[in-house]
Every structure is written in C-alpha cells, then in structure tokens.
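Subject: Predicted fold for histidine kinase, 427 residues

User T.R. writes:
Posting the sequence so we have a shared reference for the thread.
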Amino acid sequence: MRPYRVLRPFRASLRGKIAALAALTACLVAAAVGVLVHLWTAQDIRDRAEGQAVNAVYSAMDVYRRTGTLPDGAELDPPDLPAALRHPADGERHAAYDPRVEGNVGPSVWAAQRTGGPGSPVLAFRINTGPERYALRRLDVTMAVASLVALGLATPLAVYGAGLVARRLRQVSETAGRISAGDLDARTGPTGGHDEVAEIAATVDLMADSLGRRLRTERRFTADVAHELRTPVGGLLAAADLLPPGETEDLIRARVRDLRGLVEDLLEVSRLDAGAEQPLRTRVPLGAVVAEAVARTGLDTEVAVTEPAATVETDPRRLERIVGNLVGNAHRHGAGPVQVRVEGRTVVVRDHGHGFPDDLLLHGPRRFHTGAAERGSGHGLGLTIVLGQARLLGAELRLDNAPEGGAVATLLLPAGRPYPAEASVPD
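User M.O. replies:
I've generated the structure tokens; pasting them so everyone works from the same file.
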C-alpha cells in the first residue's frame, strides 16, 4: 500500500565511500612517507657530500703546503667555483651547494679555502652528487611502485571490511523497514562485534520491544472496551425498542445503532490486530461479488465490470466487507458520483470530492483519525478495517487522489490458480 514505505536497502555506497576513504588515506600516507624519505635522503646526501668536500680540502691544503702540488680533484681558482666561495675568509674552509648539472656532473658540493693571505689563490674541491641523486630518483620510483602495490592490496581489504560493516548495517536497515511496515516481531538480533553498529542494532530491537508492548496494550484495551460495551449496547437497543413511537424514539434508536456499529467495528479491528481471523477462500466471479456488495450498501453507486469478469479465489464475505466500506467511505467523506470499476483482479472505487488528505496518504489509515475536516465525520475505523481485511486476503490496497480531483482506492487481489471465467459461486 502506498502510505507504508519500506526503508531502502543499505546500498554499496557506504562500502564505496569507506573503500575510497581507505584508499585516499593510504595514498596520503604513502605520499607523506615518500616526501619525508626523499627530503631526508636528499639532505643526507648533501650533508655527507659537504663533509667529504671539507675533509678533501683539508687534506689537499696540507699536501699543497708541504709539496706545492695539488692532489687529484683539487683545483686553484676553478672557473666553476660558486660566487659565494670566491672570496673565503683567510684560513677558513667554507662549503656551498651548486645545483648546476653538466652532463653526468652535478649537482655538486664545493669546499674552498684560501691558500695564504689576502689575494692568494683559492683551493677548492668538488664532490659530484650525481650518482647519489640518480640513486635517489630510483628510490623515489621504488617508493611509488611500492605505494601502488600497497594501495592495490589495501583497497580490496578496505572493500571487504566496509562490506562487513555495510552488511551489518543492512540488517539493521531491513529490520527497521519491517518494523515500519507493521512487522512488530522483527528483530535484528546479534550482529557481531561490540561497536557502534551493535549498539544501533540493540537500540532498534529495544525500540521494537517498546513499540510492540505499547501497541499490544492499546489493542488489548480496544478489545476489552469493545467486549465490555457490547452487552450494555445490546441492552440499550432492546430498551429502545420499548419506547413509544415518535421523534425521540427514532433519534435514540439511530444513536444506539451508531454506537452498536462502532462497537462491532472495534471488535473487528481487535480481531484483525490479534491475528484471530482466518479467510475462507473459494472461487467467485469478482464482478458479481462486487456488484452484490455495492447493492447491499443501498447507496447510489455506478458499477462497471469489464467483460469477461475475472474469477478469483478469495473470501467473498471479507471482499464484500472491503467493497462496502470503501463505497460507504466514498459517499460519507467524498462527493458524487461514486464509481466502482472492476478490471481483471482489480477493484477501483472513486469519488469526486476533495480527495484523501495528505496525512492519510503519507501515514496510511489510522483508527479514530478521519483526516481533514472536508472529508466529513466518522470514527475513522472504516479504512482501518479495509486495510486489515485486505492484508488478510493477501491483497494490495492503494490510496491515491485523481489528478482532476477525487479520492481513488484501488484493491488488487492476489493471483491464485487459474480458473475459467464462467466459474460460479459454489452453493
């Protein structure tokens, strides 16, 4: 039925989001580790090269001062010497980084020291960090490949882990949907684990227990009230028969009959709620049963049956009760003309009034709730009984408003075993 909306199943979107978040986290961690390793290695290469260059200048200066010759790699005032080292302080060794790359040489670290006093040549030594930089690039590639491999392994694990969480949440969602559809015995039960999902499942089960207790108390109260009122109402009706004829007697009898109808409706609702009713199914021509049910109401109603009339397997007494209530509801709360149309296994009852109120379409029929004021008066049990009887027959009831105005109630009977169209009601 349209007003009762089952929650949508928990889809894989959550699984995808968790997996994407895990993959993104892995990428960020890999990138952060890669950047840190790169920076640390680059700085270590530069620091070691600087130490080697300074030590080489120290050794070369000692050889130069003792022998007047330059060892391999040492140069006096080389043309490529960085500007920061061309005028070092007397007697002090200085180092500088040269980012230039020429062929296979570079980047480099230079160290320099003046050989004597002011104006004396500058002895310099150059450490080529090109091989180390090449090794660093290979390390970067290795880190990138390792990160991609780790990401490829982590993503399926994240999808699997997210699927476990999504599966448990789907259990909770399905249970909540069954409860909202009226199955008060639905429970999630243990979902595994002791996390937030387990807490949500336990909370939903506790909510269902509390809701079930309240509804059972309400139903028990309704049934008790109806049973207790049945005897005094019967006495009132018998007493009303003893009144002398007149306007007062007619008024009292009418009110007592209304009260008796209310009590009977309450009893019927309580039996439907308690599951005490069982349908007696038989083969019947749907068109004939509907036409007879409309005639029993005594209300001016148009009946149209599409030929050939379908034969269905159902409980004709309960079907007549449904059709009679729908027709009576249309006359009481809507406006004429009221039309009943039978097409196959579908019965459509339509009026031309203000239509069903939005609250009724959203939440479904509720006892003692008639909706908007323009729908007329009543105790609000008619559609509740119709819904209960339809569920008992396995039929689907849809309540809608026609685009051009008016309420439309559609009853779709379940498909049973195929029977010939000319089958008749058994004696």
